[in-house]
Amino acid sequence: MAGSLLPLLAVLLSAWPAVGDPEGPAHVDGAPPSKIAVVGAGIGGSATAHFLRQHFGPEVQVDVFEKGEVGGRLATVTVNHNDYESGGSIIHSLNLHMQDFVKQLGLKYRRSVAGKTAVFNGKEMILEETDWYLLDLFRLWWRYGISFIRLQMWVEEIMEKFMRIYKYQAHGYAFSSVEELLDSLGGSGFINMTRRPLSESLLELGVSQRFIDEVIAPVMRVNYGQNVSIPAFIGAVSLAGAQNNLWAVEGGNKLVCSGLLKIANANLLQAQVNAISPIQLGETLQYQLSFTTAAGTGSELYDIVVLATPLQPSVGSGVQFQGFTPPFDELPGNYHNTVATIVHGYLNTSFFGFPDPRLFPFASILTTESPDLFFNSVASVCPVNISAGFRRKQPQEAGVYKVFSPQPLDKSQLKMLFRSYYSVQVTEWQPYSHYGSSQGLPPVELHPSLYYLNGIEWAGSAMEMSSVAAKNIALLAYHRWNRQTDMVDQRDLMHRIKTEL
């Protein structure tokens, strides 16, 4: 998730079928897999390696293939001798897997630095955070009535149901599809939320159109770069991240990925996986991975393979599936393009109606949907290492800013936003799915013992969603391998867990 509304909004808070028989051939009784491959070393892949090690034990060889940098969409850039998050930057306090990772790895929470937020419509600030919580609350009520209370109750109800996943996973239960997982948490209501536009759901809830346009839309623009037509479940995930109980990792969120690979004792291979082929020898099914490293090409056989990288054509994973019956290749759908521009310079506060930068009180500017606006947000950002004496730069000083936009900023646009600047670093991401209200959810099981992690992103994209999917796949792979069908896709799990206790 890209950004946060900080304290301003703290008061608010056609499916794709699986291929083949997921059960697969029987294994020698009690024999663990010899080798497992994970393709991708982002948060999903590194968490999968960690959970696979937990469930399969120390003897299994876990190879992790990564063609780029460990961390994937968790990444930093260096500006003026300091590192700044250019990818996923915030984590919610209820993200229990991420919290547990940080604790296990001995990492620290980054010290938060206060800063006020405003919403800009291209002409003026229409919503401004103040230093007084009660005044902010009164302003929201005066402008939007009880819309923000209805929204808060809705998001809290969804989060309460979603939190059930931690109990299910702690008891070892797994799900063979994203639909099964969502159904276990919120029944058909959660699945329907992946198919209905957010705006439609909120209007039905009694949230005003004005509130949707001026508050909800800016959150969607900063977090997913998209509008309020995205599915309601994804919108709820995004709105949960608009609270002020957010955190990040000291030194950079990507440290979680490298740390998980280390404690998993995973074998990291800097390689591009080119092809995956099933190899059937009698009763035994394995997968041959062909790959390219700096030293040349190679291939290895694996008992279990987890793909923790997007397989949509817009991303271009480079992985080909050869020899599968029925044949399949890339999955439908597209990833959304967004641009993160890190600028070291002087913000042009006049653009936002403040000719004197000393009177500009905001650290973050979100935007409404307007044809005149070429950016989604601009925010003063802090380095990933924050010393005890650190203070946020004032607008009249040269600071480091992150601008999210749908397209790279040209020089004239940079000149509009900044009076002058020392450096500009551009990162073009495809960090989340391009959401459509009618699309289905990709399969988790592509073939026996061949799993796809990134399908969870089509229900909601966040570090914790990938971590939940990683734990689910590790459990699912373990139960499938050991034919423990009573631990997969079970109904009425809350009742079952209570009776187990």
From TrEMBL:
Query: Which keywords belong to this entry?
Result: FAD, Flavoprotein, Glycoprotein, Oxidoreductase, Signal
Query: Which GO BP annotation is one of this protein's?
Result: prenylated protein catabolic process
Q: Which cofactor does it need?
A: FAD
| Family annotation (Pfam families) | NAD_binding_8 (PF13450), Prenylcys_lyase (PF07156)
Q: What is an example of a GO molecular function annotated in this UniProt entry?
A: prenylcysteine oxidase activity
Q: Which domain of life is it from?
A: Eukaryota
Residue span of the signal peptide, if any? 1-20
InterPro entries on file: FAD/NAD-bd_sf (IPR036188), Prenylcys_lyase (IPR010795), Prenylcysteine_Oxase1 (IPR017046)
Q: Outline the extent of the Prenylcysteine lyase domain.
A: 127-490
What PANTHER family does UniProt report for this protein, alphabetically? FARNESYLCYSTEINE LYASE, PRENYLCYSTEINE OXIDASE-LIKE
What is stated as this protein's family in its record?
A: Belongs to the prenylcysteine oxidase family.
Protein name, entry field: Prenylcysteine oxidase 1 like
Q: Which organism is it from?
A: Lates calcarifer
Q: State the taxonomy lineage.
A: Eukaryota, Metazoa, Chordata, Craniata, Vertebrata
**Gene of this entry:** PCYOX1L
